[in-house]
Amino acid sequence: MTNIKFSPAAPARYAAAPIWRLLVLSLAFLISSKETTAFTSQLPSAALRHPKQHQFALLSSSDDDATSKLLEKARKLREEVSAVEQSKAEVQKQNDAKAQAQREAEMEEQKQRDQQRLRYSAEVPILKDMGDEVMERVDFPPRLKGGKSHIVTIQAPLPLGLVLGEDASIPGMTSVDEVAAEGNGAAAGVKQGDIVRAITACQTTMETPTWQLLAGGIGQPKTKRFMYSVDGRPLEEVLDAIGSNRMYVQGRDVWLVLERMD
Questions:
Q1: How crowded is residue 174: how many other Cβ atoms within 10 Å of its Cβ?
Q2: Which residues 6+ apart lie within 8 Å of 198 measured at CB?
Q3: Nearest Cα to Cα of residue 250 among 220, 208, 222
Q4: Which pLDDT score is estimated for 64?
Q5: pLDDT digit string, tens, across residues 12-66
Q6: Can you give 172-238 as a three-state secondary structure string?
Q7: What does the pLDDT look like over 154-196, one tens digit per residue?
Q8: Residue 212 and residue 168 in contact, taking contact as beta carbons nearer than 8 Å
């Protein structure tokens, strides 16, 4: 039996309590102590040493599961985003390749057009409204079939030493039928079979300044040189146009634009 001692400071009600009540209290205390000992003996030693840590371990187990699930979702989301980004990058790469191919095709097409234009065009002197001559590139679409011809320009003084005629295969076209070996045309590079496309021609007009008109003057003659297209022109008119270059007092060379087979 457990001895119960009362200190001087114990409450008066315990000191004055009957003996049977004290025995009941002692018995209840013993029973409570034995139950507590039996319960604690069933707990793990770590739980007894660190009850708070054991409680945290039980809670952290479910927290770890939730964290793992969140991490797995995040991983899958990153994979989905990466797949979308790769798909977009691949589409952009294909679009860039198509755009590059289109640009290259356009550049190649433009290059072919430029080559075609250079092949069938020439820089010749063009008479402007103010009377000045300006070198400009003029297109001469091919008249010979097959696409195996090109345009050449030649400058030569008169007489040219050429025999011109109407091309039998192409109506309205003037061809070079003969070239004198010692003539100016041969020296400049004219060849038999060339097709004449344009030449320089001269024309004399009377130009009267305003003050002469007021005074009743008749003006002064002035010769102008210009490019003359011979496509579809009669042969006699072409020959007259070539001969008109003698009117040019400065004695400048005749320009001939010729289409020549390759």
A1: 25
A2: 124, 138, 140, 227, 228, 229, 230, 231, 255, 256, 257
A3: 222
A4: 80
A5: 444 444 555 555 455 555 545 544 454 445 545 544 454 455 454 545 667 788 8
A6: CCEEEEEECCCCHHHHHCCCCCCEEEEEEEEEEEEECCHHHHHCCCCCEEEEEEEEEECCCCCHHHH
A7: 999 999 999 999 977 778 899 999 999 999 999 999 999 999 9
A8: no
Burial 50-88 (b: 16+ CB within 10 A, else e): eeeeeeeeeeeeeeeeeeeeeeeeeeeeeeeeeeeeeee
**Do residues 167 and 173 touch, judged by C-beta distance below 8 A?**
yes
User: CA-to-CA distance for 179 and 199, rounded, in angstroms?
Assistant: 17
Mean pLDDT score of the chain: 80
Tokens 């927290």 found at: 63
Rounded Cα gap, residues 9 and 226, in angstroms? 142
Sort 229 into a burial class: Cβ within 10 Å, 0-12 / 13-18 / 19+. middle
Total-model pTM: 0.60
E strand or H helix at 61: helix 51-119
* Local structure of 21: helix, strand or coil: helix
